[in-house]
Specification:
Radius of gyration: 29 Å
Shape: elongated
Oligomer: single chain
Mean pLDDT: 87
Low-confidence stretches: 1-15
């Protein structure tokens, strides 16, 4: 039988989340306002026929980080070029009659939807093609009309990226590293909960906290794509090692396995023999997780000695237990749980060391 989740196993509290979100929203609003102002002014100076599409593009591509904005702008430009050329070709070969235009529009939209299903970045190509077909004026050559649409959307995309890059910029890399650091803080809380349970021989359940941690890692991996795009577009000097999330997933899986092992308390004799020592190992791993999180956020060295505290004592206690009379009387299930705990603690220690190496590779400063 297990007790409710300890408060320590819950995700960290967010007392200032409203203030942080308000600040980020205000910064984003400022970026969008400035970008729209610049885009509108440039479109007027260049006498673009439908300059409002440049403004619309700014509103579409502007995201919370530089990497996300750049990715959206590139996808928007690729889809625009494809859609404008497809729509222009349809206008060029279609007689200007309502019926023929309607049939051509259906064919173009259907083809665009099929391609977008296979290539998601082209999901806006059908919209652009339809706009070209429905708004083209007979007084303007098709090729000029298509070039104007591409120029307008390119203008909006470029201004949007530059605004994200130079106006109070928020790097995707910074966001991802902070999220990984927060995940490590949650890991430390869970490890301390498990340490207390092992040391005192108390029932514990950290399943909800482990599920929340899993969801956090999945969401952060999605943002990692934006950070990698920043690096690919030379918008930042340093990347993030793809091995960092893999190491975090391995640690999370080890923690889940330890949670299952200690969910039911060990017999009092085993708790007395190895409980305090195992608890110190888990506490050392919790401190190491916090050190890794701090290194991800602010840089600095990670002291591997933090992870070694309690290892020798646990190994000695485990060896003594193996040769004791209590070990002779243990059932098969208890023996499997005991060796599973020993193996998983060793593996988790190695995964933490691997994580520290990957953090150093990312050159966090």
């Amino acid at each position: 039988m297990t007790e409710p989740v300890s408060p320590q196993s819950q995700p960290p509290p967010k007392p200032s989340i409203s203030l942080i979100q308000t600040k980020r929203a205000a910064v984003q609003a400022l970026r969008v306002m400035i970008a729209c102002t610049i885009t509108y002014a440039v479109s007027q100076l260049l006498h673009l026929q439908q300059g409002y599409w440049a403004v619309f593009t700014v509103l579409i591509v502007m995201q919370a980080s530089v990497g996300a904005t750049a990715g959206m702008a590139v996808d928007r430009l690729v889809a625009t070029v494809a859609g404008a050329m497809l729509g222009g070709a349809a206008v060029f070969v279609t007689p200007p009659e309502p019926l023929t235009v309607g049939i051509a529009l259906i064919c173009v939209v259907g083809f665009s939807s099929f391609v977008a299903a296979r290539v998601p970045r082209l999901r806006n190509a059908g919209l652009t093609a339809a706009i070209v077909m429905l708004t083209h004026s007979a007084n303007v050559p098709v090729e000029i009309f298509v070039i104007d649409r591409i120029a307008e959307i390119t203008l909006g995309g470029v201004v949007g990226v530059l605004a994200s890059l130079f106006i109070l910029p928020t790097r995707s890399r910074t966001i991802v590293l902070d999220r990984f650091g927060s995940a490590l803080d949650v890991m430390a809380r869970i490890l301390r909960t498990l340490a207390t349970a092992v040391e005192k021989g108390e029932p514990v359940s950290a399943s909800e906290a482990n599920i929340a941690l899993r969801q956090s890692l999945m969401a952060t991996e999605t943002l990692l794509t934006d950070a990698q795009r920043e690096r690919a577009l030379w918008l930042t000097k340093h990347g993030i090692s793809e091995a960092i999330p893999r190491s975090l997933w391995r640690i999370r899986n080890d923690m889940t396995y330890v949670s299952h092992i200690v969910e039911t308390p060990f017999p009092p004799a085993i708790v007395e023999a190895i409980g305090p020592q195992a608890g110190r190992v888990l506490e050392a791993q919790a401190r190491f997780a916090e050190a890794c999180g701090q290194a991800l956020r602010a840089g600095g060295e990670i002291d591997p000695k933090l992870l070694s505290a309690g290892d020798e004592a646990f190994e000695a206690a485990f060896s003594a237990l193996q040769n004791s009379t209590e070990a002779q009387s243990m059932g098969f299930s208890e023996t499997g749980r005991l060796f599973g705990l020993d193996f998983t603690l060793r593996r988790m220690r190695q995964n933490f060391l691997d994580l520290a190496d990957r953090i150093r590779e990312s050159d966090v400063k």
